[in-house]
Amino acid sequence: MITAKDIRRILLVSGWFMILTFPILGMRVDPLSDNIIWRLKNVMWVGIGTAVLQSLPHLWLLYLSIQAWGIRLWHHFRGTSPHKIVKKKAHRDSLINRVITNPRQRAIVCAVVLLLTIIYPQVVNEYQINIMIMALLYIMLGLGLNIVVGMAGLLDLGFVAFYAVGAYTYALLNLHYGINFWMALPLGGLFAAIFGLLLGFPILRLRGDYLAIVTLGFGEIIRVVLENWTELTNGVAGIVNIPGPTFLGLGLTPSQKILYLYYLMVLFVVLTIFVVNRLQDSRLGRAWLALREDEIACQAMGIDKRRTKLAAFSLGAFWAGIAGVVFAAQNRSVYPVSFSFLESAMILSIVVLGGMGSIVGVIFGALILILLPEYLRELSQYRMLFFGAILVLMMIFRPQGLISVVRRKYDIDSIKAEKKEGGA
Amino acid sequence: MSEPILQVQNLTMDFGGIRALNKLDITVHSGEIAALIGPNGAGKTTFFNCVTGIYKPTAGDIFLTPGKGEKPVSIKGLKPNIVTSKGLSRTFQNIRLFPKMTVLENVMIGRHCRTKTFILGAIFRTPRARREEREILLHSYRLLEKVGLAEFANDFAENLSYGAQRRLEIARALATEPHLLLLDEPAAGMNPQETEDLNDLIREIAGEGLAVLLIEHDMKLVMSLSQRIFVVDYGSRIAEGTPEEIRNNPAVIKAYLGE
Question: What is the ipTM of this complex?
C-alpha cells in the first residue's frame, strides 16, 4: 500500500533527480547565437520517469496483497485451507530438475538435444552456425567458471585471463613453431591450468570480496601484458593468420571448416559436461561444495583447503584454456581487446543467471546471453540496458538462477541391500 | 591406568593483550569420557580451537597418540586437516554443518581424509575410485543409522531439527575415524528427551574404545557421563577430578556461584 510517507519520499527523490540532471538535460548553450536554450520538458520527463520507477515496487506489493486476498477468498468459498496448498507447491521441484533426476527421462532428453544439435547446421546458414559456435564456446567457458564460482564458491572476476592464455598459447606456438591445432589444444589447456595454479597460490587465504578484487586485477594484468609486450605478442595489432583446425590433413573448403568446427565444439561441450558431471558427484566435488558452505568446518573434517582450492582453480582454467585455443582457431586471429573485463563479467553473468553450480543452468544461461543479443541486433543500442534490467530482475525474483541446483539423491534401498550382502 | 591419548602441557593462548588460556594442563586417557566445564568465557572453546589447529597457540605442547600402541606425536601448530587425519575430530558449539548439502553428503565429507580419489580417478571412475565411493557411501550410511538419521539421508542438512543437526555433526565427526572426539556443547538447545538420547549415544561411542572430551553446561549430563572433569576459569585450570570431587570442590563452587 502506498502511504503518505511513501508519496512524499517519491516526490522528494524525483525532485532531487530533476535538480541533479538539470545542468545536463535541462539547458543547452547555442554556440551560434550565444543563447541558452531551456529544455524544461526533458527535466519534467526525468521527474515523471523517476516517480514511476519508484512506485513499481509499491504496485508489486499491492498486486501481491490483492493476490493473497483473492486466494483467501477462493479458499473461503470452497471451504479449503489455504496453507496446505502452499506447502505442497513448495516441495515440488521444477520440471527441468524433475527430468534431470529421473535417469530414463534424462537419457531421452539428452538424446533428443544431441540429435537436434547434430541436425542443426544442416538446416541453417553459415552465419547461424557461427553464432552457435560462439554460444557453445561460452557454454564451455561457463562450465569452467562454474567449477570455480558455482561449486567451490570462489568468486573469480578475472576468468578471461585463462581464456586469453589458451588463445595466445595457440597463436604464439603456431607463429614460432608451427604447432597445429590438435597439439595446441592440450597445451593451451595445460598452460592455462598452470596459470591457474600460479594465481591460486598467493590467494589461497583470501575469500569473498578480497578474492574478487585480486582475480580482477590478475585478469587485467594479463590483458595489459598482452597489449604492451609488443616483441612477443605484437601488441594491440594482435596475431593474425592463425590456421583453423585440420582434419586428418585433408584440405577443407571454408564452409566445410565451419561445419567441422561446429561439430568439434559440440564434441568438446559434451566432453566438458561429462567431466564436470563426474567431478560433481565425486569426493573432490563434495569437497568443493563443503568448501563453499563452511571453510572452517571443512578443514576440521580433514579436507586440505589448499589442495582443493588449487584443484578448482586449475581445472576451471583448463577448460578456459581449451576454449581459448578454439576461439583463436575460429577467428583466425587474436587481439588483446577480446579479453577485456567485460568478457569475464559476461561469463560470470552466464553462471549466475543460469544458476550457480547447475550444469543445465549454465547451458541455458549461455544460450540466452549469447544468442539473444545476436538475434536482437536491431535493438543493439539498448543491449546493456536490457542486460542490466534482466540481472536486476533475476536477483529480485530468482536469486538462485534459472535452474536451481539439485543435489544427488542416493538410492537408500540399494545401499541397504548392499549392506546386507556385505554383512553376510 | 590406560595410556594417555591427548596430553596438553602448559598451553597458553594470547589474543593481543588478553590471555585466553593460561598454562593449561589437560590429559585425556584412551577410552574415557572426560568433560571440560567452566563459566562462559573461561576459554573452553578456545582450548578446542587450539588443539584442533584452528588457532596457533602462543606457547605449550600438544601431543596426540594416533592409534593404539603408537607413540604420541606433537600436533601443535599443525593444520586442522592434518590434526583430523591423525585421529582427532570435533563438533562445533554453534553448529557448522554444510547446510546446502544433503545429510548423507555431510557425513560423506567426513570420509574425505580416509580416502584418496582425486581428479583423474573422479573423471575416469577407475575401479578403485568406484570401490572407494561405495565404501564412503556404506560407511556414511551406517553412521547415519547409528545416530538415528537414516530416514533423512537425502534431505538438506539445513532442514533438520536442532537436535538432529547436533547428532549429524557427531556422525560427521565419527566418519573421520577419530580416536578422540571433542564435543563442544553437544546438548545445547536440546529438549530433555533428546539429551537423554545423546547420553546413550555418547556412551555407545565411548564403549567402542573412543575417548570423548566434551564441553557442556548441562551439569546433569556431565555428572552422569564423565569419569573425569576439568574445570577452567579465566583460562586456567582450577580443578580436576571425578564428578564427586568436583561437586564438593570449594574453588569450583566459588567460580560458579561467586563468593
Answer: 0.92
